[in-house]
Specification:
The complex is a heterodimer of chains A (about 280) and B (about 170).
Chain A: E1 2-4, H1 9-18, E2 23-25, H2 31-37, E3 44-47, E4 57-60, E5 63-67, H3 72-75, H4 80-83, H5 85-92, H6 97-100, H7 105-111, H8 119-125, E6 128-133, E7 136-141, H9 142-145, E8 146-148, E9 151-152, E10 159-166, E11 172-177, E12 188-195, E13 200-206, H10 216-225, H11 235-248, H12 259-277
Parallel strand pairs in A: 1-3, 2-3
Antiparallel strand pairs in A: 4-5, 5-10, 6-7, 6-10, 8-9, 11-12, 12-13
Chain B: E1 9-15, E2 18-25, H1 31-38, E3 57-60, E4 63-66, E5 79-81, H2 90-99, H3 108-124, H4 132-138, H5 150-173
Parallel strand pairs in B: 1-5
Antiparallel strand pairs in B: 1-2, 3-4, 3-5
Helix pairs in contact in B: 2-5, 3-5
Classes of the chains: A alpha+beta (about 280), B alpha+beta (about 170).
Chain lengths: ~280, ~170
């Protein structure tokens, strides 16, 4: 096995073009678990830890561009956390402090686990993945990024450069069900984003399908049911929203929970996250 | 850019303030393996190898990380601090002893690193409230199967108080 350590982004792209089978490694929190337990070896590791460009983030015209190697610990800090509160909430549920100090947003996407904690938030926010290869830049809408269990839309010579997210334009939330408050892979998770400017709702469901999912019917229903001037929802409508979110999921029974439990929990999370965002207005008036 | 020669790596880094290097490191080996097997630092414990238990916690360039989840080659040129090399960890060590926060001792070095980080970070930030919930969240990545955590949390409070008063003492002396 080769270990490739490009010094900058241009070198990283050249390395990926020359070694399309190379496994990118950034924080290592997923890749190293594989190496520690699986005797099989990839032909090469491509270490992105020296590529400084990937650790930056910037804001331009209301869009936050987060470098692929920005860690979950960074997403919790001011600047990013106040612009993207749901992403910060999700980041706080990732692993432990040691994991958050290493694990990166781009790595979460690269692994493309159906349970990846950032994914529901990225779906609800309508994020775009900026992929790049020596052939050029490709912008992949997040809805097209997850193609199967731990599969993504990247071409063999592409690397994730950044993730583009609109600054929060209204309340947004993330909630996750697990057996502890730390070090858990989600039994299920949900993010809901309310865009008060465009008067739209975004949703993202985690760990309840072969890929992270959205709940388009639930989004349309809630956008219609919402009193946008007061930002209130009747309790009955909030419950119906929960039912539509649960219906959109496609869960299975596995070691972490049953499909029926996941559907039930998603309906609860949908109602609950909505009540956090529209706290005093949930009464059925 | 290619770091491997004949399938192995020569690794050079700073460990506990000293320049160290080792030849023949496997490109898939973890920093944990290198610290134990190449550099003989046995405070860095090998248990879960998947980031669950925190017993291999070390500082990497100032941040506590699970050394089992860092490829050794990623640490090339970086600064690693283990429990053996922690300057100013006496307050944490004293508190662990005084509070009975050590039983079998296996998790202790990893916890000492995590607690050292926690109490020094919060001492710098006067707004940082170190209540039980904050301590539990900060130490969520370090498992202890003996103590039931109560005595560890007590030790954190004691160490934090000592480090804070040291900080105030230094301010006053200036």
């Amino acid at each position: 096995m080769e270990f490739l350590a490009p010094a900058d982004w241009a070198e990283a792209l050249q390395a990926k073009a020359a070694h399309p089978d190379a496994v990118p490694i950034a924080g290592g929190t997923d890749v190293m678990v594989g190496l520690n337990f699986d005797p099989r070896r990839p032909t090469a590791l491509l270490d992105l830890g020296r590529v400084a460009e990937l650790r930056d983030w910037e804001v331009s015209e209301g869009v936050v561009r987060i470098g692929a190697a920005v860690t979950f610990a960074r997403l919790l800090q001011s600047g990013l956390a106040d612009r993207l509160p749901a992403l910060a909430t999700a980041a706080r549920t990732v692993g432990s402090p040691q994991i958050r100090n290493r694990a990166t947003l781009g790595g979460n996407l690269g692994t493309a686990s159906p349970a990846g904690d950032a994914h529901p938030v990225l779906l609800a926010a309508g994020a775009v993945v900026e992929a790049e290869s020596v052939r050029g830049v490709r912008l992949i809408p997040i809805g097209d990024f997850f193609t199967g269990v731990k599969r993504n839309a990247l071409a063999p010579d592409e690397l994730i450069r950044a993730v583009l997210l609109p600054e929060a334009a209204g309340p947004q939330q993330f909630a996750k069900v697990g057996s502890r408050n730390a070090m858990v892979i989600a039994v299920c998770s949900l993010s809901v984003a309310v865009d008060t400017r465009r008067r739209t709702i975004g949703t993202g469901i985690g760990s309840a399908g072969p890929t992270p999912l959205t709940a388009p019917e639930a989004e349309i229903f809630l956008a219609d049911a919402m009193d946008w001037d007061r930002l209130t929802v009747r309790a009955g409508a909030a419950e119906h929203f929960g039912g539509l979110v649960a219906q959109a999921a496609s869960p299975i029974d596995d070691v972490r929970g049953t499909a029926a439990y996941r559907r039930h929990a998603l309906a609860v999370l949908a109602f609950r996250t909505l009540s956090w965002m529209c706290r005093r207005e949930m009464a059925d008036v | 850019m290619r770091r491997t020669t004949d399938g192995v790596i020569r690794l050079s880094l700073t460990v506990n303030g000293e320049n160290r290097s080792a030849a023949g490191v496997s490109p898939g080996a973890s920093l944990l393996t290198a610290l134990r097997e190449q550099f003989g630092l046995l405070s860095v414990k090998n248990a879960c190898e998947q980031g669950e238990c925190g017993s291999c916690t070390v500082y990497l360039d100032g941040d506590p990380v699970c050394s089992c989840l860092v490829a050794a080659a990623q640490a090339e040129g970086r600064q690693v601090l283990t429990a053996e090399g922690l300057a100013g960890a006496e307050a944490v060590q004293r508190a662990f002893l005084a509070c009975g926060a050590v039983q079998c001792g296996f998790c202790t070095p990893g916890l000492v690193v995590a607690v050292h980080d926690l109490v020094h970070r919060t001492a710098k930030d006067p707004s940082g409230d170190l209540d039980d919930a904050a301590i539990r969240e900060a130490l969520a990545g370090n498992l202890c199967r003996c103590t039931g955590y109560e005595k560890i949390i007590e030790a954190v409070r004691q160490a934090a108080a000592e480090v804070r008063s040291e900080g105030r003492g230094q301010e006053a002396a200036r």
